[in-house]
Amino acid sequence: MTLNPDYVTRYAENFIKELIEYSPKLISAFIILFLGLYTIRFINRIIRKIMVKRDLDPTLTKFLADILLWVLRVLLFVTFIDKLGIGTSSFVAILGAMGLAVGLSLQGSLSNFAGGMLIILFKPFKVGDTIEAQGILGTVNEIQIFVTKIINSNNQTIFVPNGSLSNGTITNYSLQGSRRADLTISISYDTDIRKAKDIITEVLNNNPKVLKTPAAEVSVKNLTDSSIQIAVRPWANNSDFNSVGSDTLENCKIAFDAAGIIIQPFVKEVSKNE
């Protein structure tokens, strides 16, 4: 098969002619695209600074800024397509059909998006709070559109879907500002209960991290077959909670040793048949 040189020449001339006629639209469309991307980043930074100056919640600030960013990007893309000469009406119809199909296939993601909106609106927790949800205990590091990032005590990063968080039970340990430690110390039946309670109370009073209000509780919790269980319930600020629990146990052991009181270990009863 041989090509006709005249046909190739006419095709090339027509192509160059169409390219020259279309180049202004193409150039202007890409100018709008690049200027739009720069403007969107500039607007996003300004909006973030305004919300920070107004002391808005950091979680709400990031969430709204991310939504604004994507909305502006979609509008810019539609403008870019329109400038290229592609009919936006048909494009919007195709985009709507694609959105429906994607929505049906991504129901879980849409549920997570709705869950993120609920978390932002009703604020069961915020960034920096210590929460327990979905079997996970840790500090909220970031609330994203679809997931919440939690850092646990082992410094592991855990991503929890917002849909599960918004529909499940959430325990917020930071909301009230203080927490109560529930400790149990077992002593033998030969020990003077009042003396042991006085020693524990003194240990708590000597710890500056233990809150005076509400007052700590020291009481008999249970009488088992092998020991007397004393409940020790000191209150502490959230930042001091872990140290108050460990310090109380350590200082009570030291004080009991000095007073000659023996902490009764757990005894497992084994039958003769075993």
Give me the secondary-structure topology.
Layout: H1 5-53, H2 58-83, H3 88-105, H4 107-122, E1 130-133, E2 136-143, E3 147-151, E4 157-161, H5 162-167, E5 170-172, E6 178-180, E7 183-187, H6 193-205, E8 217-223, E9 228-233, E10 235-237, H7 241-259
Antiparallel strand pairs: 1-2, 1-5, 2-3, 3-4, 6-10, 7-9, 8-9
Quick summary:
With 274 residues, the chain is of the alpha+beta class.
Task: Give a verbal description of the structure.
The structure is a single chain. Helix content is 54%, strand content 18%. The protein has seven helices and ten strands. The termini are far apart. The strands form three sheets. A five-stranded antiparallel β-sheet has the order 4-3-2-1-5. It is of the alpha+beta class. The protein is rod-shaped. Residues 269-274 have low confidence and may be disordered.
Question: Tags for this entry?
Answer:
single chain; 274 residues; alpha+beta; 5-stranded antiparallel beta sheet; 3-stranded antiparallel beta sheet; 7 helices; 10 strands; 54% helix; 18% strand; rod-shaped; disordered C terminus
